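dumping these here so i dont lose them again. two proteins, back to back, each one seq then structure tokens. dont judge the mess
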Amino acid sequence: MRLQSKLTLFSAVSKIVVVLLLVALLPPLINRVAMVNTDHRLNEKKDSVLDIISNQGIENFVAEGSEGAYGSYNLLKEEFISIEQIPEPIALDTIENSLRKVENEIVEYRVLSLTFEVDGSYYLLEIGRSIDTIQESIATMQYYALYFLAAVILITVFIDLAFNKILLQPLIVIVKRLKRIGHPSTFTPKPINTTTSDFLYLNNTINDMMGQIQDAFLKEKEFIGNVSHELLTPISILQTRMENLLTDPEMPEHLLVKLVDNQKTLHRLKSIIQALLLISRIENEQYLKNEEVSITVLANEVAEEIADRAEAKEIKLHLNLEDDWTLPQANYSLLFTMLFNVVSNAIKYNKPNGTITISGAPKGKGYELCVTDTGVGITQENLPHIFNRFKRLQGPDNESHGLGLPIVQTVAHFHKIKLTVDSTIGVGTTFCFRFGNK
């Protein structure tokens, strides 16, 4: 998962946890706020009533000395106020829930109760608000609070997404540049536009590291050139000298046999060096891919080139190619070597009177070319190692040096060809090359 996705996911999960906690704590919190607000409102009404009594007298509510009472309910019985004269003084100043009977209906109220004295007479003031009305207010508050929380979460998520995208943009640029590197020589060091010190350090470190890798590849190319000259030249000189000695009529026969053996050894050594140089040059991208190669034409030319060798070993070579497919930006000579080596191995390790089939057909948006033989096969434990250099698993032919298949793999990788191998002991082996999109 990408870093930006992880940051966004973490932010979203953390906000969901916060929302769940708020949802759990919201009802008691809002209930408490509603009750405090209701008590504050009852106290305000109490102060208003006492101000009226102080300014206008108690007679506006209760006739003095009458031991009467005053009561008032609003239309929906949501609130009430009552004043009644009491015979004895009682110290009372409370706010609590209380049940009241109103028109044969029991209603629960939040009631403020207060006793006070006016001109030597004592009165009880009660102001109440319906609990149902308070609960309705609580439900409304919870409803809007939840919507508000949801809106805040959505806004903060979008803000986080935008911020993360801006914050991580330098890292995204660095990753894209790394993905575009096909070979160290194609990398160009570039500064990055950011004020984040971590990203600046990362970009500078990558630039320095790629610079060191480019220097190492350049030295390797120089080394390859030196090896070509320093090794192949003396080998060629030795071969020439031995050929001259072989033509000497006075050379004893037993020495001629040794010279022939030495010449074969030099030939094998020269072949090994040339194969290693070929692999190294391919890996260093010293070959151009500036040709369009027809896969069917390639397969036919390889079959024509190797037909005599197959016929000499009494092996039948079949071609079964459907349609045609062209590989753009390719190197024909390398592809020819790749396919030639596979077919050559199929001949080398085949059974007497065996067969080799080169088949090809479009697959998806690409083309699949397979070489199937009826040879001795490769064991399952050896299959993962067949492309290892110098690891010779089977070698009945003295000219086999274990580098044919490493060359095949190197050329396939150079052209971004998917290479698969399937083999069964005693049945045969199939090499498949997938050209184009996988």
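---- next one ----
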Amino acid sequence: MPNIKSAIKRVKTTETRNSRNTSQRTAMRTAVKKFEQAAENNADNAKELYVEASKKLDSAVSKGLLHKNNAARNKSRLAKKLAK
């Protein structure tokens, strides 16, 4: 545990950011997995789940969790699965 006040503050902020990033990353992955399962089963709500997954990917880019090209690649792959 750090003794310096600024280092203590950095530990606290790192913990809060880490937990926030983890929860957002988990939500994004869950949305993608839900869509992939729906696309495999030819579910009726696949289009809605695709939109939700795209929003989560875009949100992850704006938060700095993903690189924009990574999100674009994932969205492209999801769109291909939707078209099938």
